Amino acid sequence: MGNIIEIYTLKTMSEADKKRIMQRAQEEIDAIYPQVRKVIDDVRQHGDEALFKYMQDFDGVKLDATTVKVSKEEIEEAYQKIDSTLLESLKILHQQVQRFHDFQKPQEWMTELSPGLLAGQMIVPLDIVGCYSPGGRGWFPSTMFMNACPAVAAGVKRIVMCTPPSKDGKINPGALVAADLAGVKEIYKLSGAQAIAAMAYGTESVPKVLKITGPGSAWVVAAKTLVKNDVGIGVEAGPGEGLVIADEHAYPEYVASDILIQAEHGDDSAGLCVTNSRALAEKVQQLVNIYTAELPEYRRNFVTNSLRKYGAIVLVDTMDEAFDFANDYGVEHLEIQTKNPLQDMKKIKNAGGLYIGNYAPLSAGCFCSGPNHTLPTSKAGRIRGGLNTEDFLKKITFEYPTREGLGYLKDAMVSLADYEGFPAHRNAILRRFQVK
Questions:
Q1: CATH number, domain at 227?
Q2: Which residue, of 236, 255, 279, is where some domain finishes?
Q3: Most distant CA pair in the chain: distance in Å?
Q4: Tens of pLDDT along 317-329?
């Protein structure tokens, strides 16, 4: 069978291998755009009729306008179905995530920018947002919090949550309880591209939102890309990615364990290690084989398939090369397991989220640490960071000059208006000093 994950030397790696590793699942996403576009157009044009048809076709779930929205009774029932240990864990997770995102909220400010001119910035929440929490490969109460808590911190009044139901039309009770604890009042039993289309354009049963957040499958990623001219899409969060930067001081047991974290999400995920130590690389390779064999079959299959397609242990000559590789890759989750991780952290420019030191496995960030685990994938980490409170806010600037304040800048304003060829601009300024 061979090893589950291969060791490559960066300077001798073939261009084909480098492209495959760097591109990860993007080709899979590109291939489904025509199918996803058809779903979106159909839901946009035919509303509930198309929405419920696709839920029947794709998920085998029969829904209508009376059953698509989770009822209060279903939420109450969910609390009865989970044990006290899980409920307490969900409350701890909620507290951590909400507290972190409350700290993230920016402050309004105002200052006298020049004599007689007050200027500043107001912070205004979006009116209505849509959040997607995936469920096709498992249930993720944690993602409910990661979507909803920053919206709550921002002050969003209406949060719409879509998450896939099981075959019996029910939502996982842990996920429902999480959504309720987070303060979500509108939860819909919807999945995939049809859920994104419903939130983007609205149907008879699902309200149109201003922004859609949340991770998902290739279908969800493609759908968000196709609707982004009509609705905000937040973080482009698709198939999971994890990369561990490790030097000779790292523990191979930790590194191997952490490579598997994102790989077990699905066979379109990616798990990598980049190191300057061949001894570490070889030990990690052996341990990945051992640890994968310990997993349940369906997770074991995900890990095996994803690491053989998009996984790698990359050997470099120097740690500077390791950081260059990581910045080029622009990974969703980046761990730094080195002798001086806080110092090395400053070498990172492109990553969705950073996990620093030997005691920061990605799984801590997935659950109870507090920072958001909805992070950019497919190199989007080169452009932005993870989902945060500001994603649900508008920053509206204002200026309030007195007559003297406008007069202080009048000559410069008039000169610029003349230079740019805008006489109405100039006249609006001058008339303030001509009319008594």
A1: 3.40.50.1980
A2: 236
A3: 89
A4: 999 999 999 999 9
**CB-hemisphere CA count at 13 Å for 402?**
7
332 part of the active site: yes
Q: pLDDT grade, residue 136 (50/70/90)?
A: low
E strands of 47-91, at which residues? Answer: none
Which one is catalytic: 236, 241, 264, 332? 332
- Does one domain contain both 223 and 329? no
Residue type present at position 196:
I
pLDDT (average), residues 247-264: 95
Among residues 94, 101, 333, 373, the one annotated as catalytic is 333
Cα–Cα distance, 333 to 386 (Å, whole number): 10
143 and 65 both lie in a single domain: yes
Does 382 fall in a domain? no
User: Are residues 217 and 149 located together in one domain of the fold?
Assistant: yes
Rounded mean pLDDT of the chain? 93
In angstroms, the CA 126 to CA 404 distance is 35
- For 379: left if phi > 0, alpha if psi spans -120 to 50, otherwise beta; the answer is left
Neighbouring CB atoms inside 10 A of 158's CB total 16
Domain shared by 424 and 409, yes or no: yes
What are 271-283's pLDDT values in tens digits? Answer: 999 999 999 999 9
Q: Across-strand partners of 109?
A: 121
Question: Is the model's pLDDT at 410 over the cut of 90?
Answer: yes
Separation of alpha carbons 240 and 379, rounded Å: 12
Crossing angle between the packed helical segments 252-263 and 297-310, to the nearest 10 degrees: 100
CB 108 within 8 A of CB 395: no
DSSP 64: -
> Within this chain, do residues 17 and 33 fall inside the same structural domain, yes or no?
no
| Residues forming a β-bridge with 401 | 117
Structural domain harbouring 336: 7-23+239-370
Looking at the 3D structure of the chain, how many domains does it have? Answer: 3
Asked if 100 and 208 sit in the same domain, the reply is yes
Instruction: Please say which residue of 211, 236, 261 terminates a domain.
Output: 236
Read off the pLDDT of residues 7-62 as tens digits, 9 standing for 90 and up. Answer: 999 999 999 999 888 887 677 778 899 999 999 999 999 999 999 999 999 999 99
**Domain shared by 48 and 168, yes or no:** yes
In the block, residue with structure tokens 């994950």: 5
Neighbours of 195 (CB within 10 A): 31
Global pTM reads: 0.86
Question: Residue 130: which of 100, 155, 162, 166 has the closest Cα?
Answer: 162
Q: Is 333 a catalytic residue?
A: yes
